[in-house]
Amino acid sequence: MKEITSTPTRAKKFRKAISSAKKVPIARKYTPQEALALFVEGNFTKGQWELLQGGRKEIYPCYSLLQKAKKECYPAEDSIKVTETSFEVELQALLDHTALRLLQYLKEVIETLSELEKQHLTLIFDF
């Protein structure tokens, strides 16, 4: 208190410093999809992620949400057939899932299109 009242302008400087500190942007929380990308790109282990997340829960989602986000990256389970020697996915289910994921990823771009442009979107695949 003594410091603030030592000069006539000191209180104003303190008030300005406090108000500017309140304006510091708070880091926003990663979405599970963004966190999954970070997890994969960073080559994290489950233990490393939990250690990182434990220190900053307000930014990083828990590991179980990453697992759910990863499951969303695959086509429906009923379109997948796994045996001891092979792994098969129905082509139409894979194409549908890929198109859906692209539309989700490009949502902001799609919203800027006119109805006519949306009706004439074409997805071209090459194998």
From TrEMBL:
The molecule here is called: (apollo) hypothetical protein
Q: Which organism is it from?
A: Parnassius apollo (Apollo butterfly)
What are the leading ranks of the lineage? Eukaryota, Metazoa, Ecdysozoa, Arthropoda, Hexapoda
